[in-house]
Amino acid sequence: MRKSTLPLLLLVGLVFLMLMGVGSVYAQDDSPTDDEVNAVASQLYCPVCENIPLDVCPTQACEQWRATIREKLEIGWNDDQIKQYFVDQYGARVLATPPAEGLNWLVYILPPMAFLAGAVVLWRAVKTWRTDEPEGVIEALTSDDPYLARIEEELQRRERGEA
Description:
The protein is an all-alpha fold. The chain has helices at 5-27, 34-41, 60-74, 79-90, 105-129, 135-142, 146-160. It has two domains: 28-97, Helicase, Ruva Protein, domain 3 (Orthogonal Bundle), CATH 1.10.8; 103-160. It is 65% helix and 0% strand. Helix 2 (34-41) packs across helix 3.
């Protein structure tokens, strides 16, 4: 290959790569992508199956519901409108995150309260464990029990080396 044809080949290759990029831009349409549909579907649960998010449920009904989500996105509905549509159809049980109203607010209140109560109990337990000498030991040492006095004498004798 001659040196004069190398720049021409590079130019043709560059034009070819640019045209490939333009073609892919024109190939896209305005329909929502699977990621956009799944972003909404992941916030909903399958009304038929137990505890399965709509974006991963393999049933025919869930495929139809994902198609409904796609249609709603195509006509310009936002996430909240689509979720409200499904709530109107199947009830609040389809929401992945229950609304904080009625008894559902307990879901948001009870876990932090239980955590704080557990922290207080643990703090008080550790505080009691850290005392230097438990009260029972102090009372036993100050009592006039002859058995304790005899044990104390034996221990002192052994420390001095007397058997």
